[in-house]
Amino acid sequence: MDTCNDLRQYGGADAYFQTCPSRPVLSLLTSKWALLTVGALQQGPLRFNALRRRLDGVTQKMLTQALRTLERDGVVTRTVYPTIPPKVVYELTELGGSLTGLLTAVQDWSEEHLDEVLAARRSYDRRAVAEVEPVRPAGDQRLSGQHHDLAALPRGEA
What we know:
Layout: H1 23-29, H2 32-41, E1 46-47, H3 48-54, H4 60-72, E2 76-81, E3 87-92, H5 94-97, H6 100-112, H7 114-129
Antiparallel strand pairs: 1-3, 2-3
Helix pairs in contact: 2-4
């Protein structure tokens, strides 16, 4: 039987372990709005409303949460200019900029395989809605391919 090597013994992280410190970083990479925000900021600094317009479908709450998480993780900087009203600009840090290659690869893969993924979903959904015959003992013909009123069955068999 093959087992995974515990990379911690070599000084490395192993995200497959529940206690691995890399898990929170991995969760950053699985947040749709965080990734799309980083992608939008690849072109340069943006204000909140410009980001919100770019990220079609994001709510103010979700964008605010994504930006706070990205700022906390050192991926985005938030600069407030002392104007009236205050001007707030978000931009990628050097660390955030290092994500752009990964994001481009994920976007390219998504676009390249979109038709295959959608076809797989349709196929799965067709199978999922197909009526499944109940498992019965051999020779038991009740409910076989027909809709029956369960209330009409003898007590204890419904």
